[in-house]
Amino acid sequence: MKKLLIALLMLTMITTMFTMGTSAEEITLTFSGWGDANEKAAIEAILNKFTEDTGIKVEYLYVPDDYITKLTTMAASGELPDAGYMTEPDCIQWANEGMLEDMTPLLESESFSQKLESNQFIDKNGNVVGISMANETIILYYNPTYFDQMGVAYPPSNAADAWTWEEFVDVCRQLTVDGNGLHPGEEGFDPDNIKSYGVKIPKASSIYEPLLRSNGGGIYTEDFSDIALDRPESIEVFQALADLIQVEHVAPSPSDAASNMDMASCFLSNSVGMIIDGQWSIMSMAAAKEEDGIDFDVAVLPKFDTPVTGNTGGPCVVFKGSKHVDEAMKLCEYILTTDYVMTFINGGLWQPTTLDWYTNEDMIAKWLTEGVHPKHYREAVIDYTLNNLQKNSFFTVGCTAQIDNLFLPALDTAILGETTAQESIDSVIEECRRVYKEYLASIGA
Description:
Largest sheet: 6 strands, mixed
Shape: globular
Radius of gyration: 25 Å
Distance between the termini: 68 Å
Order of helices and strands: HEHEHEHEEEHHEEHHHEHEEEHHHHHHHH
Structural class: alpha+beta
């Protein structure tokens, strides 16, 4: 009898183990994302490796265009993926509406304990609902070859030496020349026939926000209780940006050809001496350097008062409604582990999101890649991120897209010289406040 009981027990254990194994094999997750062909291939390789290591299958839903539209449609039909990328401006809104899982438990693991707070998306309840796949710091790119030709000193790569806005504008004048070789301010200078501009600054809240904060302004107040677009400190920055085009003539207008050229083309043709952009452009510029011999380097942003930079970073999220939340969390943890995305980091597309990659010399050495990361990258990106970064608003505010869609188009009139920055902001400030107050009320703030 005893032997029979033992045999039955062993059979039960074997059956249970077989059932568990079969169950694990039958789990199939869906992971959604976007990106170019290189990023797609890299993510697919990570997902395949995850399946090899865990036995959990993953179907990759690749959506290169209109990503959030696709997700919205899937949400309406109750067919969201288990996990995937999420667009930065939409992450908190989706979380506040109960569409995303709380990922806070992941941060309790040893491998995630040093995740940068600046890459965590925090919802109305204080939960971490998304963690950036990569950190992306806003920096200043410049063309050393053109600087040398013009006899101008390079931009500072150390935040302690950051140019004041006045110093920055003065350098922009030195780099800007018309068809006759004249600079702004010189007699005979033709603003309608400019050959080379000093700087190009894309119109984007992620670019504007660190400049606003550098001057004590912002899109939102420091405590996020109100809109700060109409504060004098913010208006001063917006007017300074417009003046680069309309008064100083050192930046291309929206209709100028240089405005529509990519960075590599601008530097190759010496059409623009400096461009403010995100760290992600390192990859494309490194490729252009190898293919076309284009030289480039990076520096810190000019400052109004204090040196400040901002960041972006599309989050990895787990969608509500997943039948396999634990497995989806495991997949996100796997993808968010830096070791699996070193191709992107070494290639210049991504920055790590864990503190030790910014402080540990051995890990920094693994990050920096000869021929990709330029000479001053360490100071202008790694140290700058560590010491001067203030996370952009969309990491905590769920209506940034709506606010951006109001004030950015309004600023066009100032950029075109049709109004002052004050007038352009005044034309939309009441609507901005109405939208923001409704948002605050919706989250019980």
